[in-house]
């Protein structure tokens, strides 16, 4: 079960640049310190999500391979 400050975001099936664009838009609606758990299947998301976090000051708490793609846990700056 996710706590109130954690949101799941399923972006599986979307191709670059949509996962990073949608992640940025969702993070903009969240409070500082909240966690966004993003699931993707686009292999470029590994680079793009890390770059987004670095650019915008968010913390990439987790980046892991899953059986069908990748999972990221991002703490909103």
Automatic annotation (TrEMBL):
Domain UPF0033 per the UniProt entry, residue ranges: 9-76
GO MF entries: transferase activity
Cytoplasm is among the record's keywords: no
Statement: the UniProt record of this protein carries the keyword Transit peptide: no
Pfam family, one: TusA
Lineage top rank: taxon: Bacteria
Keywords, comma-separated and alphabetical: Transferase
Family classification: Belongs to the sulfur carrier protein TusA family.
Protein name per its UniProtKB record: Sulfurtransferase TusA family protein
């Amino acid at each position: 079960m996710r706590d109130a400050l954690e949101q799941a975001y399923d972006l599986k099936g979307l191709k670059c640049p949509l996962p990073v664009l949608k992640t940025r838009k969702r993070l903009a609606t969240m409070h500082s310190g909240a966690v966004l758990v993003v699931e993707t299947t686009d292999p470029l998301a590994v680079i793009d999500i890390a770059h987004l976090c670095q650019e915008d000051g968010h913390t990439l708490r987790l980046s892991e391979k899953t059986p069908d793609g990748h999972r990221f846990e991002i703490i909103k700056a």
